[in-house]
Design goal:
This protein is an alpha/beta fold. It is built from 13 helices and eleven strands. The longest helix is centred in the middle third of the chain and has 21 residues. The relative contact order is 0.10. Bound molecules: nicotinamide-adenine-dinucleotide and zinc ion.
């Protein structure tokens, strides 16, 4: 069992990582239970697989547990589901001192966190992430949001949870493709500023994906520690620090936009390809060696993850992909800061990237694949 802290002054909180934690869930969440009752939010898939044993334990501990089920899938990060969830919380008589528990992947975490931030001007919430992506990334750091017609995550708030409870064993029911998508975000932390961790990933990635307990524990705790450190330094992304977590995301979002933000290309898959593109583009600008980009691509390939535009099913040309980037919420004053690398573990934010040059690079990437 590991306990990590995210240091944010009065908003500081702990992240507990323990295999089997959900089998002792009543004890873990006891500090957050008020008036012997608890309010839980989950999606239809996760609730079916994991709610019965959680409900049974809470009941055994004498804690009443009410559950609100949201349809599984990214489409539920919507105004409609936000309204249904906040109506439910109010109907349950939620008070400001109550805690709402988010049991699910990033979709549930983002939706529930945002609901908690606005209901009665804010009540407490606790994250119980059930996907690898949520355990290593979205459950920590306090970004909450829903999607709108204009784009993803455009309506939301910075709102920190009070506690994050991570049980790696819950991943045993996660589909392998979702596991690989989350793994891309694990590798991201090595690429950002920890070359030794990237090397560890090369040696142990297969064990992580296979759910080997020790490997999974190390991957999760290392990732969470990295995220906690970066968020602690720059909670609201006002310095260049937190932006590092977006490595691969500018390319990735363009690929997601082209493939419809859904099943065709999962977020983590897009980020994985996006990181490979970011390293290739860095090499093209003479910032890092081509072999660094090749090394990343080789690792993802060994993990059966997509690495090229072709693997990602992207057909749009460079100009169309760059057009998607122009709609990025990080666009400022007509330019877009880009995360590039001077090598593995040496990511930095570059402010002088010419989007036409990126378009030309993407056209070359298409041509190379042919
Ligand atoms: N807040 C942040 O900092 C942050 C960071 C990254 C991503 N995100 C957001 O997270 C979302 C993506 O998260 P995600 O990949 O976890 O998606 P998700 O929550 O939609 O989960 C993916 C799928 O896995 C299923 N699932 C979840 N846990 C399971 C389990 N244990 N067993 C079986 N099935 C399970 C879900 O029902 C769903 O079908 C996006 O909306 C993204 O914008 C937020
Ligand atoms: Zn991401």
């Amino acid at each position: 069992m590991a306990r990590l802290t995210i240091a944010l002054g009065q908003r500081s909180y702990e992240i507990a990582v323990e295999a089997g934690a959900l089998d002792g869930v009543a004890d873990h969440v006891a500090p957050w239970i008020k008036r012997n009752r608890s309010l839980w939010v989950s999606d239809s898939t996760v609730a079916e697989r994991h709610w019965p044993r959680i409900a049974a334990q809470l009941e055994a501990a004498g804690v009443a547990a009410a559950l609100h089920i949201v349809p599984a899938g990214e489409a539920s990060k919507s105004w409609a589901e936000l309204a249904r969830l906040t109506d439910w919380l109010l109907a349950e008589g939620v008070e400001r001192s109550d805690t709402v528990f988010a049991l699910g992947g990033g979709m549930i975490g983002d939706l529930t966190g945002f609901a908690a931030s606005i209901v009665k001007r804010g009540c407490d919430f606790v994250q119980v992430p059930t996907t690898l992506l949520a355990q290593v990334d979205s459950s920590v750091g306090g970004k909450t949001a829903i999607n709108t017609a204009a784009g993803k995550n455009l309506i939301g708030a910075f709102y920190q949870p009070r506690f994050v409870l991570i049980d790696p064993q819950v991943l045993s029911t996660l589909p392998p493709r979702e596991m690989r998508a989350g793994y891309a975000e694990v590798v991201k932390y090595g690429l950002i500023d920890d070359a030794a961790f990237f090397e560890w990933c090369e040696a142990h990635g297969a064990d992580v994906l296979a759910g080997h307990p020790d490997a999974l524990h190390h991957a999760i705790t290392t990732s969470v520690a990295a995220k906690a450190r970066i968020v602690g330094e720059d909670e609201r992304e006002t310095k260049d620090r937190r932006a590092l977590l977006n490595l691969g995301h500018t390319f990735g979002h363009a690929l997601e936009a082209d493939t419809g933000f859904g099943e065709r290309l999962l977020h983590g898959e897009a980020v994985g390809v996006g990181m490979v593109l970011a390293l290739h583009y860095s090499a093209r600008r003479g910032l890092c060696a081509s072999r660094d980009a090749d090394r990343l691509a080789a690792h993802f390939q060994a993990c059966s993850m997509p690495v090229t535009l072709q693997d990602a099913g992207v057909t749009a040309d460079g100009a169309e992909l760059v057009d998607h980037m122009r709609h990025d919420k990080k666009m400022a004053g007509g330019t877009l800061p880009f995360l590039l690398a001077r090598g593995i573990g040496q990511t930095f934010l570059c402010h002088d990237v010419d989007l036409d040059d990126v378009a030309a690079f993407l056209d070359e990437a298409h041509a190379d694949a042919r």
